[in-house]
Write a structure and sequence with these properties.
Helix content: 40-55%
Shape: globular
Number of strands: 6
Length: 176
């Protein structure tokens, strides 16, 4: 629905949406527009009083999608950095989206079901092992589909994400 109001001459879109398939929808709807896919490890949540808390620890990765030239990802990363947000251009959009999907699969369901902050997965070794197993399963699927290279280990990124967002409540936990 949001795309309908953009019109045919939209100059380009950088989507930082979690999940899968949204880039294909954008590509079908805006075949001529430069498209960028991004993933961020910045976290934000509302506390019980409704106050917004955010974490500036983490980087936003931006990559070209489809026929879009790499210069667009470099430009988007420059714009984000000029706003004070750590950002880096990358070459492979599917890779960064699948890595983010693997981290979300590891963190969000556990923290939502347990009503715990992200850091609980670091503090309790059993929970950490479950999270890592979920991430590794998602990585195995991504590898089979060619989105991730053989031997990719999500453990370091998962540990860094949990440390950077330890006080946050995952988006899935907030939704519940």
């Amino acid at each position: 629905d949001a795309l309908a109001g953009l019109g045919p001459r939209w100059p380009g879109i950088a989507s930082l949406q979690n999940g899968w398939d949204h880039m294909e929808i954008l590509e079908r709807r805006l075949p001529e527009a430069p498209l960028l896919a991004g993933a961020t490890s910045l976290g934000a949540y509302f506390d019980a009083e409704g106050h917004l808390h955010g974490s500036l620890a983490g980087t936003t990765l931006v990559a070209p999608w489809g026929r879009t030239e790499a210069r667009w990802a470099e430009y988007a990363a420059t714009v984000l950095r000029s706003a004070g947000l750590p950002a880096e251009p990358r070459e492979d959009a599917r890779r960064i989206l699948w890595r983010k999907l693997a981290l979300n699969a590891a963190v969000n369901p556990l923290t939502a079901l347990l009503h715990r902050e992200n850091g609980a997965l670091l503090d309790q070794p059993a929970l950490g092992r479950i999270a890592l197993a979920a991430a590794r399963e998602a990585v195995a699927v991504g590898t089979r589909h060619g989105y991730l290279p053989e031997g990719y280990d999500p453990a370091p990124r998962l540990e860094r994400l949990l440390a950077d967002t330890s006080g946050n409540h995952s988006s899935m936990a907030q939704d519940l």
